[in-house]
């Protein structure tokens, strides 16, 4: 601020214009007042809890179940369970913009976020979520930056059909197995080696590709539109984490249970003391047995399809070691390393979105092959 003011004075002086002393004094006082106001505002914000709706807030909001000490600007919302209902309704204030409603499902945290533009918290007082609310653990709302934010903590991993009827948002939760033949859980690397979130981005890309394929087939359950066919879709992919949002082993086990996954695929990166070593490899659980399912074959199917799609080298398929997390999972499971982070060239490919999409396409091809067989 001071530098720009000084530069302006210099420019005027070059034009041989002499500023009256009292104008400079008044402007200085005004600038000083503005600076003090900014400092005061910053100090005030630092003393209050400011929550931004994104992946980073889930621990703040949901670990406290909307406790006012955790999220001071949220208001707890009442629910009313109606017997026999399959859906629950969320009232839409009259001030809401007709095209300003969005819903996001953060299934990793059992969370449903609703944003309503143009609505105010004052219009939402004394309103109740009604219907099939038994699966809602906590509900809260707040006004934030010209929007009304509604946050619902659910009792598990759900998908949703969503529609708008008579001033209400109608939400129908359903389990993936109600509409999908198989549920595939992708578990991106949850250690510090994957600093660029390569594996999480691959998982997200695979989910997007499968959703596009289903839309072309006339089925779009992911967007809440439901299925236009009485037949179940081939598979539903869940990712156990998103970029920047790591998970502990306990959380992964809980997610395997809550998602009712049929197959669990870990995505990871390899390391080597040889910086020239490259390629993809797989590990499988040699102890878990399910009639008609061969874990080694599942690992081979994913490794082969991913390597072919990415035009990379498939190196080896190994049995899991005694302390491997795969040994503790009583599901068909495998661990696929999609490349070496110690190989500068290969890791450079992995950070390229186009290359990651090829890996994701290989994952989709593997899922289709596993489901067919």
- Our Rg estimate from Cα atoms comes to 27 Å
Q: How far is the N terminus from the C terminus?
A: 68 Å
Bin the strand percentage. Answer: 25-35%
Shape: elongated
Largest sheet: 6 strands, mixed
User: In what order do the strands lie side by side in the largest sheet?
Assistant: 12-11-13-16-14-15
The overall number of domains is 2
For the secondary structure, the number of strands is: 16
H/E order of the elements?
HHHEEEEEEEEEEEHEHEEHEEHH
Question: In the CATH classification, which architecture of the largest domain applies?
Answer: 3-Layer(aba) Sandwich
Describe, in plain words, how this protein is organized in 3D.
With 373 residues, this protein is of the alpha/beta class. It folds into two domains: 55-174, Immunoglobulin-like, CATH 2.60.40; 177-372, 3-Layer(aba) Sandwich (Aminopeptidase). The chain is built from eight helices and 16 strands. Strands 12-11-13-16-14-15 form a six-stranded mixed sheet, with helices on both faces. A five-stranded antiparallel sheet has the order 1-7-8-5-4, with no helix packed on it. A five-stranded mixed sheet has the order 2-6-3-10-9, with no helix packed on it. The chain starts with a helix and ends with a helix.
Q: How are the SSEs placed, and which strands pair?
A:
Blueprint: H1 2-14, H2 21-47, H3 58-62, E1 75-76, E2 78-81, E3 88-91, E4 101-106, E5 111-117, E6 128-131, E7 136-144, E8 147-154, E9 159-165, E10 168-174, E11 180-188, H4 198-216, E12 233-239, H5 249-259, E13 263-270, E14 280-284, H6 295-310, E15 314-319, E16 333-340, H7 344-350, H8 353-372
